[in-house]
Amino acid sequence: SNGGVAWSRGPLLGKGGFGSVYLASLKNPKSRNGYYPPVMAVKSAEVSASCSLQKEKEVFNCLNGCPFIIKCFGEETTRNEGGEMFYNVLLEYASGGTLSGLIKKSDGVGLPELDVKRYTRSILEGIYYIHSHGYVHCDLKPENILLVSSSTKAGEFVAKIGDFGLAKKSEKRDKKRKIDPYLGGTTLYMAPETVANHVQEPPCDIWALGCVVLEMLTGKQAWDVRPDFTFEELKRKIGDGYELPKLPSEVSKDARDFLKRCFVANPMFRFTAEMLLDEPFVSGVDLDGG
Ligand code: ADP
Ligand code: MG
Ligand code: MG
User: Which ligand 1 atom is the nearest neighbour of the CA of 16?
Assistant: First the structure.
C-alpha cells in the first residue's frame, strides 16, 4: 500500500510519546538491491502529528555514518485501510531490544563488567560522533540504547544510540545561549545545569552516560527515588551540584574513575567524549566496528 519500498508491518516493538515502532519486513527481499535489510524497524506517526518525527529523520540523516548509531534507511508516507495517512521512518532493527530490557533481566544486580565496558565504549563512540557533528542527544537513557546483533560475533550484541526526537544543535560557546523553557527527556538522567538552568549542551549527554553506566553496573538507577519524584524535587536535590550519585564500591577502580569523570557537577570541568575515550575503563576495548 505504498509507492516506495514494499514492506509489511509486523508486531509492535515499542510505543513512545508520539507514535509507535513496528517490525517491518520487505515483501520482496530479492529486489532490494542490497540497500534495504530484509527486516527493519519502522517508526510511525500520523502525518498530522509527524512534525517532530520529521525533524528526528533530519537528525538521523546527519548522523548516518556511525556504526554506533541506529541507521536510517529512508522515509515514506503510507495510507492504511481506513484512509489515514502515516509518516514512517525506516530504521535499522535492534533484535536484542533495549538496554533497559537487558538491565531489567539482571534482576537488580547489574551486568558483568566486561559487557558494561563494551557497551560503554560503543555508546561513547556514538556520543563522540554526535557531538563532533554539532548535536546534543538530550535524551540518553537505557530505553533509547538499542541492541543490534553483531555482524561478526554470533550471539553478541552491539549497543547503538537511537531516539533522536529531542536532539538539538549545540550552540556556539561565544553566542549568547538561548534557554529552552521546554525540557523533554527523563528527569532522572538530567545534568545539574539542565535541572538548574535548562542548559542542554554536550556535557549533558556525558552526565546521562554516567547514569547509564552506573545503571548497567548496579542494575539500579543513579538516583534512588520514588516513582512519582518530581522535577522540582530533583532541582532541590542536585540543581546546585551539591549531591552527586553514589558510586558503587563493588566495581573496579577503572569503572569508578570513569563515573567520577562523568559526574562532575560543573559542566566546564566534566570530561568530554573525546577525553573519556582515553579512560582506562574503555580505552582497551576492542570493538569490531558494529
Ligand atoms: P520515542 O521517541 O517515542 O521514545 P523511540 O525511538 O525511543 O521512540 O522508540 C520507542 C521504543 O520502540 C524503544 O524504547 C524501543 O523499545 C522500540 N524501538 C525503537 N527503535 C527500535 C529499533 N530500531 N529496533 C527495535 N526496537 C526499537
Ligand atoms: Mg525513546
Ligand atoms: Mg523520543
Answer: 3
